[in-house]
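Renewal narrative, Specific Aim 1. Our central claim is that a sequence can be written position by position from structural information alone. The example that follows is taken directly from our test logs and has not been curated for this report. It begins with the structure tokens describing the chain, in the order in which they were read.
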């Protein structure tokens, strides 16, 4: 496929997240997508993304993912992005704080016929938790629960 088609699919993915119309992801993600870096508790396929972003939007109802830089070829789209939102519901065990968050992330997604078939990525989950006032503890704390220490 063309890089323009891949960018369009990636753009539609972001629009689905930003609008909350997550069912659109069913047309953009392969049922057998290979996710190399799943979010916390993320299940397989399009439903895994739908559930993950439904949980994110529950915690941050005004969640916005904004691409900062996109580059693409005939197979893949690489993107740096910023996520923003206001913490209005529980997120990773942290009750609503009303605080706003801003975090960066990067991803590379491979597409076939305008559908995501593979993804690698990283977002600053720890940075989000720090912005919410969740202080890491050395033993028995949040970092241990996340498998960081």
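The sequence written for that structure reads:
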């Amino acid at each position: 496929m063309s890089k323009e088609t891949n960018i369009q699919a990636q753009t539609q993915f972001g629009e689905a997240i930003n609008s909350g119309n997550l069912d659109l992801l069913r047309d953009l993600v392969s049922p057998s997508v290979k996710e190399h870096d799943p979010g916390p508790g993320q299940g397989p396929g399009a439903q895994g993304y739908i559930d993950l972003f439904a949980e994110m939007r529950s915690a941050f109802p005004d969640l916005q993912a904004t691409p900062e830089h996109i580059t693409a070829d005939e197979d893949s789209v690489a993107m740096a992005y910023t996520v923003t939102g206001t913490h209005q519901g529980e997120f990773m065990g942290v009750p609503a704080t009303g605080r706003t968050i801003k975090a960066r992330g990067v991803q590379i997604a491979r597409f076939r016929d305008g559908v995501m078939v593979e993804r690698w990525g990283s977002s600053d989950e720890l940075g989000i938790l720090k912005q919410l006032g969740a202080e890491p503890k050395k033993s028995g704390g949040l970092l241990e629960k996340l498998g960081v220490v």
